[in-house]
Design a protein that fits this description.
CATH architecture of the largest domain: 3-Layer(aba) Sandwich
Order of helices and strands: EHEEEEHEHEHHEHEHEHEHEH
Structural class: alpha/beta
Number of strands: 12
CATH superfamily of the largest domain: Glycogen Phosphorylase B
Radius of gyration: 23 Å
Distance between the termini: 47 Å
Shape: globular
Helix content: 25-40%
Number of domains: 2
Largest sheet: 7 strands, parallel
CATH class of the largest domain: Alpha Beta
Number of helices: 10
Amino acid sequence: MNDNLFVFQEFPATASSLRVAVVTETYPPEVNGVAMTLARIVDGLQRRNHRIQLIRPRQHATEIPARNVHLEEILSQGVPIPRYRGLRIGLPTKQALFRLWSLKRPDIVHIATEGPLGWSPLVAAIKLKLPVSTGFHTNFHSYSKRYGVGFLKKPIAAYLRKFHNKAQATLVPTEDLRRELAASGFENLRVVSRGVDTRLFSPARRSAQLRRDWGAADGEPVALYVGRIAPEKNLKLVVDAFSGMRARVPQARLVMVGDGPERTALAADPGRAASLRVRARASAERIDWDNVFDDFEAVLRDVMLWQGASSV
């Protein structure tokens, strides 16, 4: 037999596609850090050929869940959140999720929020022996004092610790937060940093007219804060840091982009600039989201391995 009839070729191994159930109580078009972060991650995972089952509250009565090759939305009931206009908290869905996942099991469940909708999939996944990761996005226990219910700080912290410690991994955005939570008894913490879409946030979008609207001449520095203008965002630190900047560079400007209960007081203070212009978001730190997707995907696969090992 002629060996030349056989051709051998090596192909690089490709990672298998995952079926990921993502549970969150906030999602675009709602505008907040959790919603925008989750949307980027869900989009990035789809582009990497993973299939996403997105479970979230219905945002209005006529909303139709999205369906495509890589995305399946499951909409739950929700109720408005006091003092957070336009946001809703999901109601418990444990039995519905248990039935759904018994018939069509996800490879892994990722829970982004710790409310009633978040607790339901945590319990259902544990009962079905599904690997679970959670995301720690908001220091609710630290916020309690800023909203006049400081006496609830310890009970809230205990609830969050119990919630996250039931998962195989809890994703946090910074090493500082990882150390803080670890000191408070949180376990299995993994750092997955945030990113910025460098195609959207680019120096090419710099607007001279916008800077003139702010009262900033060419070459004059502008400090930019983007986020909810509320007590829990520690805006005093922003203002104090800016005061230090102006002591060195008197022509510096501070632009605050967002809305919230503190906006009126800040805008009324002479020497501070408050802007709600969306274009103000065009300049930002350049961090490639592909690195975030790599880290997030790696954690998901690690959690699946840990769950498999613990089930043997």
